[in-house]
Amino acid sequence: MTKKLITRRSALVLTASAAAFVAAPSILRADAPYKRSLNMQSLNSGEKLKVTYWADGQYIDGALKSINYFMRDLRSNEQTEMSTDLLDLMYDIDQLTPSKAPLYTMSGFRSHSTNEWLASRSDAVDPSSFHMLGMAMDLTQDFADPGMIYRVAKKLGRGGAGFYPVKAPFVHVDVGPPDTWLWPQHGRLDRAEEYDREQLKAKKT
C-alpha cells in the first residue's frame, strides 16, 4: 500500500513537472517579442499614428517610413529619416509619464528654409536647430500639466530639453548634446557645433 502511494505521488509530481515544463515556453512566448510603440497625434495636421517601430531587437523599416512621413515638414512637405535615438527617447518619455494620452506633436523635421523662416519671426527658434537633422520634436501630452514631459526628459538627460510655457505650452526634446532650458532662456548656442565635432571625432575613430 505504501509502495503504491509513493508510486502515485511520484506520478503526480512527474505530471505536475511535465505540465509546468509545457506551460513555461508558452509564458515565454507571451512575453516575446519585446516591442516599442509610439502613439502620436499632430496638433497641426490632425493626423494620428499608432505604430510599433521596433521589435525582436531591430527597427521596422515600414514603420520608420510611416514615422518619417508623419513627422514631415508640413510647410514644404519634405521629409527625412528621423533619428531612431529620438524615437527611443520619445518612447521612454511616454513610458515614464502617468498620462495615457497620445504624444501630441507640433514640429518634427524642418527643412532649412522652414527653419530659417521661423527663426526670422521668432527669437525662440534656433537657427541651427536639431529639427533640421530629424533629431528633435516639439510636443506635449497632458494639457493640465504641460511641463510633465520636460521634467521627465530633464531627468533622462539624453539630449536637449526645453519648456516653453507660452499660450499653447509645449516641450522641445532633441538628441543633441545634453542641455536644459526654460523659455525665455535659450539652450546653449554651441550645441550644434559640439555635435558636429563629436560626429567628426567618431568618424576618425
Q: What are the salient characteristics of this protein?
A:
globular; alpha+beta; eight-stranded mixed sheet; single chain; disordered N terminus; 205 residues
Structure notes:
The protein is α+β, with helices and mostly antiparallel strands. It has 2 domains: 1-32; 35-204, no CATH class. The chain is built from 6 helices and 8 strands, in the order αβββααβαβαβββα. The chain has helices spanning 2-31, 61-70, 84-96, 112-119, 148-156, 191-204; strands at 35-42, 48-55, 58-59, 103-107, 136-140, 160-164, 170-174, 179-182. An 8-stranded mixed β-sheet has the order 3-2-1-4-5-7-6-8.
Q: What is the number of independent domains? A: 2
User: Roughly what is the average pLDDT, rounded to an integer?
Assistant: 87
DSSP strand content: 15-25%
What's the gyration radius in Å? Answer: 24 Å
Low-confidence stretches: 1-32
Distance between the termini: 76 Å
Helix content: 40-55%
Order of helices and strands: HEEEHHEHEHEEEH
Largest beta-sheet details:
8 strands, mixed
Number of helices: 6
Structural class: alpha+beta
| Widest sheet, order of strands | 3-2-1-4-5-7-6-8
**Morphology:** globular
β-strand number: 8
Write a compact overview of the structure shown.
With 205 residues, the chain is α+β, with helices and mostly antiparallel strands. The chain has helices at residues 2-31, 61-70, 84-96, 112-119, 148-156, 191-204; strands at 35-42, 48-55, 58-59, 103-107, 136-140, 160-164, 170-174, 179-182.
